[in-house]
Amino acid sequence: MFSLFLLIVVPLSAQTDTKDNDKYKVITKFDPTRDASKDIIEAISEARKSNRRILLDVGGEWCIWCHRLDELFEIHQDLNKFLHDNFVVVKINFSKENENKEVLSKYPKVAGYPHFFVLNKNGKFLHSQNTGDLEEGKGHDKEKVLSFLKKWAPSKVKQKKVSD
């Protein structure tokens, strides 16, 4: 009787694990060991499924402004939700260990970090954004960042509002 239980339960749990492994995994850190090309390909697949655009966030763990931008999204969960509801975010590392020259050569030259590239759901380049334009004082301005995100969000969601 116990072995019959195992025959039924084990295959069901194995199926669940497979589905979990197929889920898109958000990249939350700038990691020089990641394959940026593969990360973009996976983001394109996810963007097509979810009808979102892709936001390439280029920077490094060494970059104070990259951390300040991440902190803005952590503090303002409404802004973070808007970001992830409308974009598949891919952190692309740029550091001494890995400059990701091959991947970044496909896009306009970056003047400073962090830097955003917006792609459509098929991976077509749409926009290059110097995040310095989104700064205010010693951080990034929530309203400037929100305005940028709304401008480049898929057209069906551009009218959505984010609360203060």
What does this structure look like?
This protein has 164 residues and is of the alpha+beta class. The protein has one domain (27-154): Glutaredoxin (3-Layer(aba) Sandwich). The chain is 45% helix and 18% strand. The protein has six helices and six strands; from the N terminus they run ααβααβαββββα. It has helices at 2-22, 36-50, 64-75, 77-86, 101-104, 142-152, and strands at 53-59, 87-93, 115-119, 125-130, 135-136, 139-140. The strands form two sheets. The protein has a four-stranded mixed β-sheet. A two-stranded antiparallel sheet has the order 5-6. Helix 3 (64-75) crosses helix 4.
Characteristics:
about 160 residues; alpha+beta; Glutaredoxin; four-stranded mixed beta sheet; 6 helices; about 45% helix; globular; disordered C terminus
Largest sheet: 4 strands, mixed
CATH topology call: Glutaredoxin
Poorly predicted segments: 1-20, 157-164
How many individual β-strands? 6
Overall 3D shape: globular
Order of helices and strands, N to C?
HHEHHEHEEEEH
CATH architecture: 3-Layer(aba) Sandwich
CATH class: Alpha Beta
Specify the CATH homologous superfamily. Glutaredoxin
The span between the termini is 59 Å
Average pLDDT metric: 87
Count, helices: 6
| Secondary-structure-derived class | alpha+beta
Major sheet: arrangement of strands: 2-1-3-4
Fraction of helical residues: 40-55%
Radius of gyration (CA) equals 19 Å
Question: How many structural domains in the coordinates?
Answer: 1
**How much strand?**
15-25%
